[in-house]
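$ ./design --mode recover --in tokens.txt
reading tokens...
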């Protein structure tokens, strides 16, 4: 564990990404103190530029952009983490079943995986949310259900490799059941790629939620960075800050999680960095 931490922290972009992620989580926990005003409260000065009174300015209805960014971080990060947990859970289950059992089970599950993988995820999510209505729970569920194939493929590959290793054959020879062998022996050793994929899934979920909200399919009762961009569409000339700050928040969050994912991958696979160097 210590060697992993040392390798990860030596990767400066990954360390910077991790610091930004931890900073966002800390900000989300301190939102009631950092931005006490309701981001949906209408009033105040409309189109007030960034300054001492309003650090990030206000929108066309006088809503505080700073407060919106901080409260939006809670929604965007919650969507990212919960959608990633959903997609990782499905991907690990499918990949483990395919890799462990092989044969027709593997063939069937991989065909299902390929079917989900070739679907245009954004447009499919757009159609589903349009048909069944916006809501934060629906958005999380749809993103998670549509994002699991890469994780499934990674876990399957790990299972196919690990199940023929000597220590697995030795454990099998002791007479332990398939479920015990799968969950206690193989799965813990196959989870490293899933951790990397999970970090990247968080970034993709944040971006996908922002894209859906930008098209007006976000939860109208919550503020998110994508919703702020949607509200700013008609006022780009009157107030540049309406779109710049939420856009920058999305960009930095997605970049940070991608850097963390790449850093975890390189720390778990030191030879990868050497081959790239």
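writing sequence...
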């Amino acid at each position: 564990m210590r060697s992993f931490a040392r390798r990860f922290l030596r990767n400066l972009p990954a360390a910077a990404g991790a610091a930004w992620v931890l900073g966002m989580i800390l900000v989300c926990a301190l939102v009631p103190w950092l931005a006490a005003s309701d981001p949906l409260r209408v009033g105040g000065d409309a189109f007030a530029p960034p300054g001492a009174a309003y650090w990030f300015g206000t929108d066309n209805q006088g809503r505080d952009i700073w407060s919106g960014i901080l409260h939006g971080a809670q929604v965007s990060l919650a969507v990212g983490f919960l959608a990633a947990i959903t997609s990782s859970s499905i991907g690990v289950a499918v990949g483990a079943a395919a890799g462990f059992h092989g044969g027709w089970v593997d063939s069937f599950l991989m065909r299902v995986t390929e079917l989900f993988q070739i679907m245009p995820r954004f447009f499919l999510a757009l159609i589903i949310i349009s048909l069944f209505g916006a809501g934060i729970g629906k958005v999380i569920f749809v993103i998670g259900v549509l994002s699991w194939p890469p994780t499934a493929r990674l876990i399957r590959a790990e299972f196919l490799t690990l199940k023929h290793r000597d220590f697995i054959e030795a454990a099998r020879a002791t007479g332990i059941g398939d479920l015990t062998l799968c969950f206690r022996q193989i799965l813990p050793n196959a989870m490293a790629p899933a951790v990397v994929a999970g970090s990247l899934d968080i970034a993709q979920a944040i971006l996908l939620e922002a894209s859906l909200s930008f098209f007006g399919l976000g939860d109208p009762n919550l503020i998110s960075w994508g919703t702020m961009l949607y509200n700013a569409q008609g006022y780009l000339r009157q107030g540049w800050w309406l779109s710049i700050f939420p856009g920058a928040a999305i960009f930095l969050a997605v970049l940070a999680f991608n850097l963390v994912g790449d850093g975890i991958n390189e720390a778990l696979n030191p030879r990868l960095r050497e081959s790239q160097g």
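exit 0
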